[in-house]
Amino acid sequence: MADKRSEMAHYYDERAGEYEQIYFRDDAARRKEIDDEVVRVRELAIDKKVLEIACGTGYWTQYLSETAKHVTAIDIAPQMIEEARKKTTICPVEFVQADLNHLPDTSEKYDLIALGFWFSHHPRQEYDLLFNSLKSHLAPAGKIWMIDNNPPAEGPTQDSSYLDENGNNFKKRFLSDGREFTIIKNYFSESELREIYGQQFKIERLTFGRHYWAVALMAM
Predict the structure, then answer these.
(1) Is the pTM here over 0.70, yes or no?
(2) Residue by residue, what is the 3-state secondary structure of 161-217?
(3) Beta bridge partners of 93
(4) CB 3.0-4.6 Å disulfide test: which of 30, 51, 64, 218 passes with 202?
(5) Is residue 67 exposed (0-12), middle (13-18) or buried (19+ Cβ within 10 Å)?
(6) Where are the domains of the chain?
(7) What CATH code would you report for 2-148+163-219?
(8) Which residue blocks in the chain are alpha helix, DSSP H?
(9) How far is Cα 202 from Cα 167, in angstroms, rounded to an integer?
(10) What is the pLDDT of residue 94?
């Protein structure tokens, strides 16, 4: 699994310059789902101290910063952070290069933790580790927000390369120059998401669209 994590980090580092194409494809229904979630995440972030994990190119960082008090945005890929720094942000934003498994000091507590388009890449056998880590950084009454995509957002090629012994789906991804990577990409039904999150969190909202799903959670 360590080699697969390394390959995924390398893939996203190399993809930084073209990553945001996913947000601007010519599909009005898909665009509306994203725009609707922008409105919701702005509201969640009002006057909040935010930890954004896997911030990528800063697409969600810019919207979080419009209403938040402060945003700490982390990503493992330096090229992603370089792209994120180019965004116009409103509140103070601190960018940190860090691994999801080595988050900032646990003495820091956040009112909102945001993970955009990461959960589908997280190994199924490590959900408990992820959830416990998130909870340890969450302030009392704090919330967790996640968004990820359903298969129709992936385009016409959704073939799986293989499933591992833990049920993780692996698929090939290609950069615009033709380079090939194999990464974890899991997909979920609405009922499966409710089962996964409902075991450890109160589900405040779960929006399950054709192209994307998003969830707002509170610790029990």
Answers:
(1) yes
(2) CEECCCCCEEEEEECCCCCEEEEECCCCCHHHHHHHHHCCEEEEEEEECCCEEEEEE
(3) 71
(4) 218
(5) middle
(6) 2-148+163-219
(7) 3.40.50.150
(8) 2-15, 28-44, 59-67, 78-84, 127-136, 190-198
(9) 25
(10) 97
**Cα–Cα distances in angstroms (integers) from residue 8 to residues 102, 117, 174, 200, in the given order:** 17, 13, 12, 27
What residue has token string 């509201």? Answer: 43
> Contact 114/145 with Cβ under 8 angstroms?
yes
Question: What is the C-alpha to C-alpha distance for residues 33 and 198, in angstroms, rounded to an integer?
Answer: 23
Contacts of 128 (CB under 8 A, 6+ apart): 200
pLDDT tens-place string over residues 95-150: 999 988 777 776 889 999 999 999 999 999 999 999 999 999 999 999 999 999 99
